[in-house]
Amino acid sequence: MKILGISAHYHDSAAALVVDGVPVCAVQEERLSRRNNDASFPVNAIDWCLERAGIDPADLDAVVFYERSMLKFERILTCTLRAFPRSWRSFPNAINNTLGEKVWVRGIISSHLGVPRRKIFFTDHHASHAAAAFVTAPTLRAAILTADGVGEWATLTVGRGERRADGSTDIALDREIRFPHSLGMLYSTFTAYLGFAVNEDEFKVMGLAAYGRPVMADHVRKLIRPTADGAFALAPEYFEFQTTASRSYSSKFVDLFGPPRNAYDPIDLQSSEGQRFADCAASVQRVLEDTLLDIARRLRHESGLPDLCFAGGVALNGVANARILAESGFERVFVPPAPGDAGCALGAALYADRIYFRNPDRNVPDHPFWGPAADADELARAARDDSQLVETLDDGSLIERVADELADGRIVGWMDGACEFGPRALGHRSILAAPHAREMRDRINRDIKCREEFRPFAPVVPIEALDRFFDVPSGGARLARFMSGVFPVRDEWRSRLAAVTHVDGSARVQALEREMAPRLHALLDAYGRRTGIPVLLNTSFNVAGEPIVTRVLEGYTTFRRCGLDVLVAGSTLLMKRAAAPAAKPLKEDEQWSSESAAGSGAV
Ligand SMILES: [Fe+2]
Fold first, then answer.
1. Which of 161, 167, 179, 198 is least buried, going by the fewest C-beta atoms within 10 A?
2. Where does 375-466 show beta strands of DSSP type E?
3. How far is the CA of 558 from the centre of ligand 1 (A)?
């Protein structure tokens, strides 16, 4: 059975194709249209998926949209009318935006693909999140938690999933919290208040939180109150998102927390004002974590299950995820590589396959690499046309060469195979660098990423060496598989991992298994042999304001106009210029290799 899943019209559109119960490909629209967070109907992503799989639209058995657009329309209409006359200014916008194309999704799909309307289906938004988390996780039964800003009406659901011995799959979401009571909206309101872009910059709030203290947590708790049934309710007088799209917080909110930050003013963490914003971020972060933990603990107790599958935009909060793992009682927490709405394209297709059509259970490959592949020959041709020095190396020589360049302090653009589905670079579209000195972080921020100084970079480490450098609880390697948890860097390594250690001593580490990205694993090994520390800085391969590069030509043009020193795609290597070597080449006394670490039971 061939099922196309689509998410669109809110944030980060995507398409995914599932054939005979297994994902074949998936890609976000922004990676092809090159418009950051492209929310438009994903024509490019759909066309690429079909072409990649060699499938004609007429051969599709079903096309599944990730939410029920009429219900969403009902919610917008109801909320707008409830708030009338206060909402009269925003009403025309809300209706225009909604009526534009969001409601008439069936017609749009039908006319674009030429598929009959009877083949077009809709899932609940949170059912899509739930399937994206549960069906892709290597577990047979698990509790399920989904949390985001809002879908149709639901903002958080709890339930359970089961893959039965008879091949059937069950996903039951038993309870939900409904709009406007929303953890995602609470966090987004602070995102707006702190001068960041809502639905895009929530991770900046999490990064800023590490610089503050949660001294205003009691203030935040005035905004969100626990209810007798174990849920929560937002106090409406502090918010305006439920009545207007133009402002999230009310004047009463400003009375409580002080003047909001102007988005154009840099955050000066040395000033009292800058510290107030950091404290604000720390406070909402703490309350978010505590609220999620209460819900997760109750879910653990009620379900009796050791595994939790967690998705929705809130599951991008790696600090909260790590606390859920450490403190809720769940032994394993599975967060998919694309927990947000883009991942719902895959979730919707999988939900339809397993639940609507009752197709038999299948194992889903446990990796994030579902997008377009990097073509090394294409890069070599383009670079030679520009009279660049191009080298083509066999795999072993290339790995050793790149490890040399990294150990000499050079910054590498690394493209390998199919690109990641989801917001994080997990080793196929990454910028890699030595992780040891703070100067490297500053150089990448200044010459490549052009971003705020308070934002940390992430490390990648072979799973065999995870425990040596990071203080990860039992089950943490699973969260770290897709960079979904933030864990402490061990004290003794912080000064030697300064470029990837956040101000509070933590890191959003990726623990890499050899099978998931063998070439990057080999590179970490080679780098470890040179320096004694098999850890690299791993950040997404893009510059500020642009989506992560997809095809090699995008990587090449990015390489040409920013501070990257080396570009690699498959067997092709380009050098731009001789970079200054690291101030002090790092060399540990102790030699390292993944074989010896695995042999010593370091995992
Ligand atoms: Fe969502």
1. 167
2. 390-392, 412-415, 418-420, 429-433, 458-462
3. 31
